[in-house]
Design goal:
Layout: E1 7-12, H1 16-26, E2 31-36, H2 39-48, E3 53-57, H3 65-75, E4 81-86, H4 90-98, E5 103-107, H5 111-127, H6 131-134, H7 152-164, E6 171-174, H8 181-190, E7 199-203, H9 209-217, E8 218-219, E9 231-232, H10 234-237, E10 242-246, H11 253-265, E11 267-268, E12 277-278, E13 282-287, H12 291-296, H13 302-308, E14 311-314, H14 325-341
Parallel strand pairs: 1-2, 1-3, 3-4, 4-5, 6-13, 6-14, 7-10, 10-13
Antiparallel strand pairs: 8-9, 11-12
Bound molecules: adenosine-5'-triphosphate and magnesium ion (MG).
């Protein structure tokens, strides 16, 4: 016998039209759809029944989405909640991520993208067969083991990472040289849903401007002298996966504009190419520069900064968390003595 257990999805939205539109888009899939037109109604439903996924509108007339999310997470901490938000309230969506929402989508939503996200969330949850064990928040499964530090300040960083890593949110990592930005980018990737997909890194400071663009976006054959064959750029290589843009503060305004376009529209052209190429990448960016100062000096685009800083992680330097020095010193000592004796 082939027993198919349908996955249950709860749509919470006070806008009847939007609920119907969502239901229509999900129709024909193997889902069992329920609807709630208010936070109060949703809370009752979640108390009675386990849902595999909740789609939650943030702006609702009575109890708003954030309040609703808090209640849902209290009743059933492991339910994945996907937030639906208008671009204007992305800040609130980020607050939602911190409260345990799995991800957010900006309205108007691309229905194909929504279906992909839903499948991804449902499949990753399927692995965790026993819901009762799992009824804890994601960050209990988070693996920080490569980052050394016990200080309150580094634990605050862990807290943000635990919330943000298992989502597709763009992450901006700020901190002085050597504070571990790259290390943290690796940890985010390893704790994300995209960990089985590619992780592509590019150091934006290490290349001359035109080379950087061709590295990022690729080029067509004959696009410039020396471009003898077609080449895929990092955005294309990272499709479906994660792209780490390191030293993001060291790019020309022109390249910044191109990156902004990929972030906004999910598409770009190869150098010398006419065809727009779609890409689905999760971006992690890092810099040791003070981007707010760079913006004031006209060297960094404000709109790009806002796009990148959906979740911002400041890594404090060691002189602000001196408690961590002995453990890190010990780690390096062991690492290098091993090298010498090996
Ligand atoms: N908290 C930490 N625990 C363990 N290793 C650390 C920690 N912080 C930094 N390191 C190690 O220090 C080295 C420098 O870290 P990393 O390259 O990630 O820093 P960065 O912030 O990217 O620096 P830069 O701005 O110079 O690129 C790496 O070997 C990294 O593994
Ligand atoms: Mg680095």
């Amino acid at each position: 016998m082939n027993l198919v257990i349908k996955k249950s999805i709860l749509i919470i939205d006070d806008d009847t039209g939007h609920r119907l539109m969502l239901r229509a888009s999900l129709d024909g899939k193997e889902y069992e759809i329920s609807e709630a037109e208010s936070g109060e109604e949703a809370i009752e439903m979640v108390t009675d029944k386990f849902f595999d996924l909740v789609l939650l509108d943030l702006k609702m007339k009575e109890m708003d989405g954030i309040e609703t999310l808090k209640f849902i997470k209290k009743i059933s901490p492991s339910i994945p909640v996907l937030i639906m938000t208008a671009y204007a309230s992305v800040d609130t969506a980020v607050q939602g991520l911190k409260l345990g929402a799995i991800d957010y989508m900006v309205k108007p939503m691309d229905m194909n993208q929504l279906l992909v996200s839903i499948e991804k969330i449902l499949n990753s949850n399927q692995l965790k067969v026993d819901n009762t064990v799992l009824k804890e928040q994601f960050h209990y499964n988070f693996d920080f083991s490569t980052i050394i530090g016990e200080s309150k300040k580094i634990k605050d960083v862990f807290e943000i990472l635990a919330m943000a890593a298992p989502s597709d949110a763009t992450i901006l990592i700020l901190g002085d040289s050597g504070t571990g930005k790259e290390l943290i980018a690796n940890v985010v990737y390893r704790n994300s849903f995209r960990k089985e997909k590619s992780f592509i890194k590019i150091n934006c400071a290490s290349l001359a401007e035109n080379l950087l663009e061709s590295e990022l976006f690729g080029h067509e054959e004959g696009a410039f002298t020396g471009a003898v064959t077609k080449r895929l750029g990092r955005f294309e290589q990272a499709d479906g996966g994660t792209l780490f843009l390191d030293e993001i503060g060291d790019m020309s305004l022109e390249t910044q504009a191109k990156i902004l376009r990929v972030l906004q529209e999910g598409e770009f052209e190869r150098l010398g190419g006419e065809q727009s190429i779609k890409t689905d990448v999760r971006i992690i960016a890092a810099t040791n520069k003070n981007l707010e100062e760079e913006i004031q000096q006209g060297k960094f685009r404000k709109d790009l900064f806002f796009r990148l800083s959906v979740v911002t992680v400041h890594i404090p330097p060691l002189n602000e968390r001196k408690e961590d020095i002995p453990a890190i010193a010990d780690y390096f000592l062991k690492k290098y003595t091993k090298k010498i004796t090996a």
